[in-house]
Amino acid sequence: MINEIPGVNMADLRLKGFRVHALQASQELPLRRGRRDFYKMGLVNGDMTVQYGGELLELKGTVLFFVNPKVPHSVVSRVNRTSGYACLFTEAFMNSRELHDSPLFRAGDNPVIPLDSAQSVFMDSIFRKMLKVYQEDYPYKSDLIRNCISVVLHEALQIQPPRQSAAFQSGAGRVAHMFLDLLERQFPIERPNDPLRMRNPQQFAERLSLHVNYLNRAVKSVTGQPTSVHIAARIAAEAKALLHHTDWSVADIAYALGFEYPAYFNNFFKRLTGTTPNAFRKV
């Protein structure tokens, strides 16, 4: 089920919980068709198009790029001169609360932070340090790399403060945040026999101990979209990931996403994407 990352020893990565490597012009980025074992952050220099959470993001110049493992992602196109560094790590390697609370990995936020020349030089020095330590036999390399990751995360937040922080100060903002967080925590779907539990606004409202009308008003006022639209879009994004990254049958995917019959899933998927699951899988 989990796709291998070109040029990366997956067994070693799972054992240590982290890996740092340089991105060479001749290699594919480790984001390509990534299934969601590891958090990833990279310092990327070049031009490429990345599909992240159902959106196409253009990476130009020098940028920091953060990947939440629960958000479907892949490289769509790139140029040969792309270079930089990538750091992959498990949730267990870092403080899970630091990751869950970080706006950098929040689903729905832009994971790309453009850097100016001074910021690029500083971030390059941090990633070079991580790579050097990773390649050495320093007995405390895990602690040092963990500290470097924290430095990158905090420097990134200084460069680009979270856009939604002001919204969370209001009651509606907090409710919308709780809803989006609860929605995202249902993913990724790892087993067909463990189907999605919450698929409509009423179920989320009950879980949050809120009236469904209040939940809908809060989410709509903060995000501009109804609760049901967020749910449907996230289920569709997960469906795309499962179709592309697993060999499950369409019936298994339908059941895993909470649809009673495959025909219901087919109709839902076609309504949101304009194509059928089988046709999408063949693309």
TrEMBL record:
Domain HTH araC/xylS-type residue range list: 202-283
Pfam family, one: HTH_18
InterPro entries xref list: Homeodomain-like_sf (IPR009057), HTH-like (IPR037923), HTH_AraC (IPR018060), Tscrpt_reg_AraC-type_HTH (IPR020449)
Transmembrane segments: none
Keyword terms: DNA-binding, Transcription, Transcription regulation
Listed name of the protein: Helix-turn-helix domain-containing protein
Organism: Mucilaginibacter litoreus
